[in-house]
Amino acid sequence: MRSSRGIRSCLSVLLAATVAAGGATAAAAEPTDEKFFSFQSDIQVHADGWVTVRETIQILCEGKKFREGMYRDILVRYTGHDGRRMNLPFEVVSVRRDGNPQEFKWETLGDSEFVYMGRKGMSLQPGVYTYELTYRIGRLLSYFDDHIELHLNVTGNNWDPLIDAAAAIVTLPKGVPAGKIRHKVFIENQREKGKTTRSHVDSSGRVIFAATRKLKDGEGLIIVVSWPKGHVAEPTVGLTFAKVDDFIRASAKIDGIESVPRAGVVVTRILQGSPAHEGGVKKWDVISAFAGTVIKDAETLHKAISKAKVGKPLPLVILRMDAGSATGNATWKRHSLKIVPVAKRRVIRAARQCPLKLVRLRLGRNDKKVPTVALTVKNVSRQNVVGYTCRVYSFNKNDQPDPVTGTLQDNPIAQRPIKPGQSAGGDWVWTLRSAKTTAKVSVVLESVSLADGSKWTPHDRQTVSIQGQWKD
Q1: Helix H segments across 327-427?
Q2: For residues 373 and 387, what is the distance between their CA atoms, to the nearest angstrom?
Q3: How many CA atoms lie within 13 A of 338 on its CB side?
Q4: Which of 255, 256, 341, 380 is in the most buried spot, having the most CB atoms within 10 Å?
Q5: DSSP category for residue 425
Q6: What mean pLDDT is predicted for residues 164-168?
Q7: CATH number of the domain bearing residue 320
Q8: Are residues 337 and 397 in the same domain?
Q9: What's the confidence (pLDDT) of residue 227?
Q10: Radius of gyration, CA atoms only, the chain
Q11: pLDDT in tens, 51-100
């Protein structure tokens, strides 16, 4: 069975931070080394390609390495087996300790996401504790010609205490035939020979993995699961295409075309708001290369798209028939574009709820009397917002479009990703011929880009806007 590099994650001990006290069961009377009694990961693969992971970790704290808590270090940025730089969208859903909600801090450091469990300033009393961390991660699946695969390091390798028992349960989307599921498991960095793991598919179609011995320092439990295509949304760029041969026959009677391409595929339809549309692809463009693969026919392009990572910007080379030259002949010119594949269902079924809420619009004028607009937004979705675009409309005192600034102002916002529940602001400044003509302004949200590569745009007469006026 073929496999691809998946995400690696690490379990570490925090020696100077975060965990609240209380709720521990009594420690053993005899001194013992701190350790992980158990590490179980419940992994749910969703039909849209996202994966939800719930980790249940039971620890023995003796006031040593665990005395001030623990954290999870999850690697989400790495170089894949094919040399491509991967950046996996990640978000924390919840943290619990002994069944109760636990405060946590989540931040990005280098190539990893760190989840600090607990509250700063509190120490963890000796005893046994059970932590439950739930998070969602995207772009984790690999798409091959005839199957989809999940390759995951469940426990990670960078920890010091032993793990007495390590296990994982993978639940696939409904409809996957149990007899078509392939699976394997092994311990990474294992130094001795012999069978030390086991795996099987149970009666409900879940895949069960377990280590049959304790995991030592530097070892990690690796699982691989594959299943047939058709149950998880595959990457798409939102266009339909046909063989260039057909296009050549259809356009043979057009006069003045020089050097008509004889390889690749011709674009016949583009879905509004799709990755191809957002990337600048036009109808009748000829695709000659995608993600480094030379496109000879439709089958080649289908395979290249199916292997693409959802949300990863990829190069697209197209040939486009530009306007005629001085001789009156049209010519084909080469253009390099970038598009971001998304899951099919995100193109077919657009999001109903806007991921951003427009919280506040602050208007003012600078020292040169130039009107300024400051907008504050809040992420109300369940994943990171990586960008958004607004249009600014200005009006005079009679609520008519201002004759000076009535044109649309298209403003993409360049900023750090906005995490769920987080607020952020952006500023626009433009110059007026007269500072007195503009009395009101309306800012309309045009699009929101999410971490998984999908994009929200207004639909069904839905408008997300905020208005304000100057007091002077």
Answers
A1: 344-348
A2: 18
A3: 5
A4: 341
A5: E
A6: 95
A7: 2.30.42.10
A8: no
A9: 95
A10: 27
A11: 999 999 998 888 777 666 677 888 888 776 555 567 787 889 999 989 99
> Is the same domain home to 276 and 412?
no
Average pLDDT over residues 103-119: 83
Hey, what amino acid is at 102? Q
What DSSP line would sit under 274-292, residue for residue? SHHHHTT--TT-EEEEETT
Domain extent at residue 398 = 356-469
- Domain assignment present for 438: yes
Same domain, 277 and 400: no
Q: Is 300 helix (H, G, I), strand (E, B) or coil?
A: helix
Tell me, yes or no, whether 139 and 186 share the same domain: yes
3-class SS of residue 342: strand
Within this chain, do residues 71 and 199 fall inside the same structural domain, yes or no?
yes
Do residues 224 and 330 both lie within one domain? Answer: no
Q: Identify residue 177 by its one-letter amino acid code.
A: P
Q: How many structural domains compose the chain?
A: 3
**113-117, 264-268, 349-353, 372-376 — which one is most confidently predicted on average?**
113-117
Among the candidates 322, 348, 374, a domain finishes at 348
**Encoded tokens for 172:** 């696939």
Contact between residue 438 and residue 371 where contact means Cβ atoms under 8 Å apart: yes
Q: In the numeric block, which tokens belong to residue 265?
A: 């595929």
On average, the pLDDT of the chain sits at: 75
Residue 424 token pair: 């952020």
